[in-house]
Amino acid sequence: MKRIEDLVVQPPQSATWRVHLDRSMWVGGVRGLMLQALHPVAMRGVWQNSSFQQDPFGRLRRTADFVGRVTFGSPEEAAEIGRRVRAIHRALRVRDPDTGRTHRVDDPELLLWVHCAEVSSYLEVARRGGLGLSERQADRYLAEQRRSAARVGLHPDDVPGTCAEMEAYLKRARPALRVTPEAAAAVRFLLWPRLPRELRLLTAGKPLYFPFGALCYYTLPDWARRMYGVLPEVPQAAVTAALKAFRLALNSLPEPVHDRAFQPATRAMLQASRERLGAAGYDVTKGLKGLTDPRRWPAA
């Protein structure tokens, strides 16, 4: 029998598996983009080198593909996407109009901010939404995410690996953050996104996306919402209740239905992961999410 490490990058018993299979990830992903946008150089890097203005939802799906491959993909798939991302970043530059300086997209400072804003958002939203993770498990999640950070070119030792380290990093980063015109536009796009062509059939339901975007916005830290000032403040208890209801509703969807939101390549990767695990004796009748239950693992 193959070792689990040969089948998927992160095993089912990992904290990463539990967080990344939780459907609150959609809220965490958009929250992460909103938080990332507060770093002027990082946001301008996105603005100058991607199609974010036309398709912000597409960036979220590409991020979901990366996260999926470095979690549920094979070691070979994770290594390949890491090489691809590093090569793309290595070739790109960002011009800062405020200083006239040109920055590398793969500058470790920028990569670290993007990583921390993203994974802290996943963790914070999942726990607030009701995913039962202890402090020790939350620390383990951040420690496991150092492997993902290494895929984009960061040294694992430079990446926060506990909740206390993450909190300290975000506190240190705050003086450099501000709302640029690009950041303000990014939040507007994320509150009212432009759908990619393959999802245009959902356009009739677009008025429902504003409440979703607002939910993502309201889960931002207090200091980030004060910086943006885009929406009036509401009681945070109501935000938590709405997040729990959203999470409960999405977690009730069958895995094949939920997976339609992903890119075709992401869906194919997830299906290949199910097949590998099934062939190794794991009970995948309830999909990858079902494997959070150790009773579905093969007998030792």
From TrEMBL:
Residues 17-245 form the ER-bound oxygenase mpaB/mpaB'/Rubber oxygenase catalytic domain. It comes from the Bacteria. Pfam families: MPAB_Lcp_cat. InterPro entries: MPAB/Lcp_cat_dom. This is DUF2236 domain-containing protein.
